[in-house]
Amino acid sequence: MAAKKQGKEARRAELGAAVQRALLARGLDGLRLRDIAEEAGVTPAAVLYYGDLDALVHETYQQAIERYSQERERAAERFTDARDQLRACIDHGPATGPEDALTRLLYEYWPRCLRDAKAAALDSALTERQIAVYYGVLVLGQAQGHFVLTDPPRLLAANFVAMEDGYQMEILAGRRTRVEVVAALRSYARAVTGHDMG
């Protein structure tokens, strides 16, 4: 019984990877069940066993949010000094370039949030989770005596996330490099915390 369950979970994971590849190749608007089936090497009927197109895309987006959030949380948790945590948060956030699959996946799904309450709730959860990381770092930095905050930490944390979100599109479109965006975020950090990351 356990082997059967593991086999089903492995097939679901393979299907999730196929959904991700198809989404990145075709975009959300052009995505069809047949595209996922081709990526997975199965029939469209076999794909439907795991859910309809909307459910599969929603699940893939959920998984992408979890991966992105966990990566940032772990990056910050490696350090006890808030200055190092802030550097890790900033360095981790921006996409590596136009081909950054995880960031592209999140942004492929974003337009659906404008009309779909379920998608909007997921996007809000992602935003709040990112704000929480920055908020914790800023509060810790203030308590450790490293940061002199110009505004309430929650507001500054939200600003960091909003700036990252805007800059992500610039990187994905090839208009800015990751290095430029990290420099811009560090400049903002210096202005609002008084700490120069160099």
Shape: elongated
Write down the CATH topology of the largest domain: Tetracycline Repressor, domain 2
Low-confidence stretches: none
**Beta-strand fraction estimate:** under 5%
Helix segment tally: 9
Helix content: over 70%
Biggest sheet, open or closed, and with what strands and sense?
A: none
Overall number of domains: 2
CATH superfamily of the largest domain: Tetracycline Repressor, domain 2
Could you characterize what this model shows?
With about 200 residues, the protein is an all-alpha fold. It folds into two domains: about 50 residues, Arc Repressor Mutant, subunit A; about 140 residues, Tetracycline Repressor, domain 2 (Orthogonal Bundle), CATH 1.10.357.10. Helices cover about 75% and strands about 0% of the residues. It contains nine helices and no strands. The radius of gyration is 19 Å and the shape is elongated. It starts with a helix and ends in a 5-residue tail after the last helix. The mean pLDDT is about 90.
